[in-house]
Each structure stands twice: as C-alpha cells, then as structure tokens.
Design a protein that fits this description.
alpha/beta; Helicase, Ruva Protein, domain 3; Dna Topoisomerase Vi A Subunit, Chain: A, domain 2; two-stranded antiparallel sheet; 46% helix; binds zinc ion; DNA recombination
C-alpha cells in the first residue's frame, strides 16, 4: 500500500496491529476519524490510555474490575463453593448473560500455549490451586474453549488439584459450543453449564 503521507501510514500501521483489522479496514477507520471532529479521536485515545494505565483486576477472581473486589465476588448471594474457571473477561460476560450461573469465577488470563510462550506461571493457576486448598470450594467447572490449548490447560489444572476434595466438571461437550465461548448463544451456553459433566468423563471421551 503506497501512502501519500507518513502520518497516515503510521496511523494505519498501528490500527492494523489490532486483531481482525487488515490494512484496508485500518485505512477506512483512520480516514473515518479524520472526517469526524477531532474530539472523537481525543476521546478514543484518552479512554484507551486511561484503560491501559488504570486497569485493575479483582483480587479474588482476577476479572477486570474498577474496584479491589469485583461486583460478583462482593455479592453475598453468589455461591462461593462453586467456581467456574474461564480464560478471560469475555467468558465471564457470556456466562453472566445466560443467567444460569450463581457461583463465582476464576479468570486465568489466557491458556497454556507453548507456541505463544504462555506457560502456567503466566496465568493465575497457582492462585486457583491456593484457593482450592483453602477448602471452601466444592466444585470447579472448567469452561475453557475446546481447543488444544484449552484441553492442555484443563488437564494441567486438573493434575494440580488432584487429591483435593473438589468435584471437577467441564461444560458439556458435544453440544455445539463454538470454538470460543463468547460465540455460543446464551441458551446453548446456559444449557451446557447446567448439563456439565465430570471432567474424568471428558478425558475418556477424547
Ligand atoms: Zn472478582
């Protein structure tokens, strides 16, 4: 792509670093911003910078939160003996939308992926194991996407928790849950949480 301006080229390059944004889309977005009042670009830049600088994570579940303890963890009506293990905030939002889950979450912050240099130490797994050993949790539901990385992560955590009196289950496979949880429709996702199966059964099936 030939640019008539270095400023334009730089802006398009930065925009195209975002996932799912190719050079053409990046150019369209940048030109759109140029046509709009300068305030809009200012607000966009400010809100992203503020998010990046001020971002906090719940001290209990590691979900993105503006306060030390997120709304879900701070809610006394939630069942703290039931913990749903998810990859990131999108999964929490998707599961909350189903209205079918009254337990707590534990947000890992990603999946184990040797290809991308993500090991167990880069995720909040150790913290989950500590919570497991405290004895309050009766059941953990693995709700990671059913990819190889998701399976690896599930199995790693399962091994770490072995010997603890915690029931480990996984959201029902075989129901058409999309590759990523966020794409599953609410009814399907809600059903797969209610119809969760013991994790050991999912090992035998695969
Ligand atoms: Zn929380």
């Amino acid at each position: 792509m030939e640019f008539s301006s270095k400023l334009l080229e730089n802006a398009v390059y930065e925009m195209s670093q975002l996932p799912g944004i190719g050079k053409r889309t990046a150019l369209r977005l940048v030109l759109h911003l140029l046509k709009r009042p300068v305030d809009q670009t200012q607000h966009l830049s400010n809100s992203l910078l503020k998010l990046r600088n001020d971002i906090r994570f719940c001290s209990n579940c590691h979900n993105i939160s503006d306060v030390a303890l997120c709304e879900i963890c701070a809610n006394p009506k939630r069942d703290e003996s039931l913990v749903c293990v998810v990859e990131d905030v999108r999964d929490v939002m998707a599961i909350e939308n189903t209205g079918q889950f009254r337990g707590m979450y534990h947000v890992l912050g990603g999946k184990i992926s040797p290809m991308e240099g993500v090991g167990p130490q880069n995720l909040s797994i150790a913290d989950l194991v500590v919570k497991g050993k405290e004895g309050k949790i009766k059941e953990m539901i693995f709700a990671l996407s059913s990819t190889m990385e998701g399976d690896t992560t599930n199995f790693y955590i399962y091994k770490q928790l072995q010997g603890l009196p915690i029931r480990i289950s996984t959201i029902a496979r075989g129901i058409a849950v999309g590759d990523e949880l966020e794409y599953a429709d609410e009814v399907t996702l809600g059903r797969s949480i209610l119809n969760r199966i013991p994790f050991e059964n999912s090992l035998r099936a695969s």
